[in-house]
Amino acid sequence: MAIATINPATGTTVRTFPELTEAEVEQKIGVAHERWRTYRLTGFDERAECMRAAADLVEKEVDHAAQLMSTEMGKTLASAHGEALKCAHGMRYYADHAAEFLADEVLADPSQVGAERALGRYQPLGVVLAAMPWNFPMWQVMRFAAPALMAGNVGLLKHASNVPQCALYLEDVLRRGGFAEGCFQALLISSGKVEAILRDPRVVAATLTGSEPAGRSVAAICGDEVKHTVLELGGSDPFVVMPSADLDRAVATAVDARVQNNGQSCIAAKRFIVHTDIYDAFTEQFVARMRELTVGDPFDPATDVGPLATEQGRADVEELVDDAIAAGATVLCGGRRPDGAGWFYPPTIIADITRDMRIFAEEVFGPVASLYRAADIEEALEIANATTFGLGSNAWTNDKTEKERFMADLYAGQVFINGKTTSYPELPFGGVKRSGYGRELSTHGIREFCNLKTIWMG
User: Keyword Oxidoreductase, does the record have it (predicted)?
Assistant: First the structure.
């Protein structure tokens, strides 16, 4: 894929960028490695001052940042504004809490290990490569960059090839915030150059958010090199609705959860599993609300759903929907691309899905909802867990016993009861099964790229 800004609402190429040569990549790795030698010795206060200054810039420039995101990957302008402000919040969160999260851990009774003093100390690992996706082109990056930089690491960013201006903006805003040259660099490269970077001894760890095949590749290379990785590889999140739920709230949230970011979110609800007693009522409202959504120009305030980010992405969605239709699934709304320019796809609901359909097992990265009927909580849980993914999950119920069952038995990295799965700096984020491993955000996210060094003093 060319490194270029291609407006997904029109399909036109706005700007192209040359790929870095091998020599240029080598030079940037060298700069990062040399910078880490001194940056790791800086204090939390100095790092926090730079991070807060960068957050101030993001807030001041929110309109510009939002326009970049909407132009490059098609999210609505309102959504892009929210993403930029979320970045600033995450930056301040780690500026405020890094020293606390990485404080020495002192043993209550060092005499148990024959010491006068024993402690665990968190220290940065070094140069970390981040391979990031286009769907949240600033937030995905910053939720790595903010904790990594506050911990004393330095970062190299291999961003998706269709959001180069977002990548360069993030590098620039951190530099203008006060981070020294080499602390955070965007590498405008194709995926073919990633392996050499991962195998470079100066690069000590990697994090990737993206597809399962990409995760497998990075994990295999880093496993061969014995380097630490954090992987977030997508999901097919269940959204379970039981009879005791507030049906109106559940339906409204279901619509938002499915079409957020034009349906292109790893933690978007994708499989809607509804108890048979309320299935018809839920379906009637769900279909009506999805039909009401406005698909169009992401810069138009009236637009609810913009285009898919890439032409191939729309083709992938169409392929899954067409396969289900051919195998006997029922389309309750949507299901056909509109005429005209751009990579638009309508909000769609598919019912009567069987397990031999690809849509049952594969993640649909677009505004397509799969609808299932469950006879009871046992069947609802069985359907919910019948996936190779395990990132997020949602359950709607006001029954205390059912809440406990869902918290205990939904097999996922996150369970949201009576609410939409989302990410917060304050909460750990990550998955199980083929959704990946490791955690981002919260205390756990900043510690992922630290060496917990045991110190014993006699």
Answer: yes
Which entry of 183, 266, 363, 450 is annotated as an active-site residue? 266
Task: Out of 3.40.50.410, 3.40.50.880, 3.40.605.10, 3.30.460.10, select the CATH number for domain 4-233+433-457.
Answer: 3.40.605.10
Phi, psi torsion values for 80, nearest 5 degrees:
-65, -40
Q: How many CB atoms lie within 10 A of CB 6?
A: 23
Our answer to whether residue 333 is catalytic in this structure is no
- Kindly report the pTM of this predicted structure: 0.97
Q: In this predicted model, what pLDDT tens digit does every residue of 276-325 receive, in sequence order?
A: 999 999 999 999 999 999 999 999 999 999 999 999 999 999 999 999 99
Q: Is 60 left (phi over 0), alpha (psi -120 to 50) or beta?
A: alpha
Say if CB 251 and CB 289 are below 8 A apart.
yes
Q: For residue 426, which phi and psi values (nearest 5 degrees)?
A: -80, -15
Share above pLDDT 90 across residues of the chain, in percent, rounded to a whole number = 98
Closest CA to 303 of 287, 292, 311, 316: 292
Q: What is the CATH number of domain 237-417?
A: 3.40.309.10
Whether 232 is catalytic is yes
Report domain extents, the chain.
4-233+433-457, 237-417
Which residues is 77 bridged to in the sheet?
none
